[in-house]
Amino acid sequence: MNKIKTIDALRALRTNIIRNKHFEEGTEPVIIKIALATCSNASGARDTYNYLVSELEKRNIETAIIKTGCMGYCYAEPTIEVRLPGHEPVVFGYVDQQKADDIIRKYIIEGELVEGIIPVNYRTIES
């Protein structure tokens, strides 16, 4: 395995992994980042993560779920960032299983915003 020597090489590797992770040719996945830091886990983020993984698979939704560290929203944990193809990312707070189900049904499937959006106060790192 080659060593990754630059941030650009790391970004390229990440992009290739997401694009090639069993997605159909020509489709762009929904990308979900879930914070799994200490405060997140203490607030139930691991249960939210497990629920998202199983439900998105059951519903056959093309998704890349990325585990992250702290997003800086400790007061609103568990938090997830959802990026629909062709849209800016949206961060949701207090995401328990019920909220995760609402996000899947209303936002990911129907494109309708749901309560719990955290206003953007950061820029995501582009890959």
Q: Report the mean per-residue pLDDT as an integer.
A: 85
CATH classification, class level? Alpha Beta
CATH superfamily (homologous) name: Glutaredoxin
> Segments where pLDDT lies below 50 for 5+ residues?
none
SS-derived structural category: alpha+beta
CATH level-two architecture: 3-Layer(aba) Sandwich
Assembly context of the chains: single chain
Radius of gyration: 15 Å
| Overall strand count | 5
Secondary-structure element order, N to C:
HEHHEEEHE
Count the helices. How many?
4
Cα shape: globular
- End-to-end Cα distance, whole Å, is 21 Å
Write a structural description.
With 127 residues, this protein is of the alpha+beta class. It has one domain: Glutaredoxin (3-Layer(aba) Sandwich). It has helices spanning 7-20, 38-42, 45-58, 97-109, and strands at 30-35, 63-68, 80-83, 90-92, 117-118. Strands 2-1-3-4-5 form a 5-stranded mixed sheet, with helices on one face. A hairpin with a 6-residue loop joins strand 3 and strand 4. Helix 3 (45-58) packs across helix 4. It is globular and about 40 Å long.
